[in-house]
Amino acid sequence: MRAVLFHETGGPEVLNIEETDRPEPGEGEVLIRVRAASVNPADWKFRRGYMEASLPAIPGYDGSGTVEESNDERFSPGDEVFGNIKSTYAEYTAAPADAIAKKPDGLSHEQAAAIPVAGLTAWEPLFDEGDLERGQTALIAGAAGGVGHFAVQLAHLAGAHVIGTGSSANRDFVLGLGADEYVDYTQQDVSEAVSDVDVALDTVGGDVTATLVPTLREGGVIFTIASAPPEDAARERGARAVMHITSPNPDELTQIAQMVVSGEVRIELSEVLPLDQVQRAQELSESGHTRGKIVLTI
Questions:
Q1: Which residue in 136, 149, 203 sits closest to 175, CA to CA?
Q2: What is the pTM of this model?
Q3: Could you give the CA distance from residue 278 to residue 181 in angstroms, rounded to a whole number?
Q4: What is the rounded distance in angstroms from the CA atom of residue 290 to the CA atom of residue 71?
């Protein structure tokens, strides 16, 4: 099969399309003919060597495709599936049946591939861990990004008051997703502009993380996905800071997918590129300025 591999860590230039062996599915796994793979920040961090990797490696943490072989009674050859699937920058990959769901009709493979990592990384901290409720306030830092644009819409649908942050170029986009307020970080200090936040989701990291802590109410919580949680600073406010690690959840994947099919949630696909443009796809992701999601077609 054709697949993207890297034999050493480094920049996008270490990514090459090669011929390699097709994987064999183990017990409780399915073999998937990949049709689309999402591009996530974890992909280029993996390539850079920021995460443990046994080389050579095939990037990719989610995707969508068709079952070719199944060693699990829940899936059959021909089923269209999507989920938290590893090594998706390839024509075929093997995945645990517990990490995938059947793709609903009306959802393209490109849309389905964009959901698992970003959608669940928005859903789980807001609702499974943050217990966000109607009438509460949610602050989404990096609201126009892959995770952020899901989080804004999901929090809005739950009846929360949603505040998004980002650059001036993304104001109309984020407000159009359902945000009630928008803070342009180039013009305002979010720590002064926002207060009494129940749940904050930091998708940006770096210096941004510390600016979000003063926005929390007593008893509030900030979830980080790109930086270490500021536990001490949050504790001083009577709040919590938690590093969120996303877990596969086929039931929640299906719920998000149905929201997309119904039109309640919109997936912004900023770039849909063929596999041979993988270097450009990861360059765009690494820039940190992409709106919505980047997807590779295979």
A1: 149
A2: 0.96
A3: 35
A4: 38
Same domain, 271 and 154: no
pLDDT (0 to 100) of residue 89: 98
Does residue 103 sit within a domain? yes
User: What per-residue confidence (pLDDT) applies to 288?
Assistant: 83
pLDDT at site 163: 98
Cα–Cα distances (Å) from 212 to 184, 201, 208, in that order, read 14, 9, 7
Q: Has residue 231 been placed in a domain?
A: yes
**32: in domain:** yes
Rounded Cα distance, 154 and 224, in Å: 17
Same domain, 172 and 90: no
Query: Alpha-carbon distance 78 to 186, whole Å?
Result: 49
Average pLDDT, the chain: 97
Domain that holds residue 176: 118-243
Give the pLDDT confidence score for residue 52 in this predicted structure: 84
Rounded to an integer, what distance in angstroms lies between the CA atom of residue 3 and that of residue 17? 5
Q: Which helix (H) or strand (E) holds 219?
A: strand 216-224
Each residue's pLDDT tens digit, 154-170: 999 999 999 999 999 99
Split into its structural domains, the chain has a count of 2
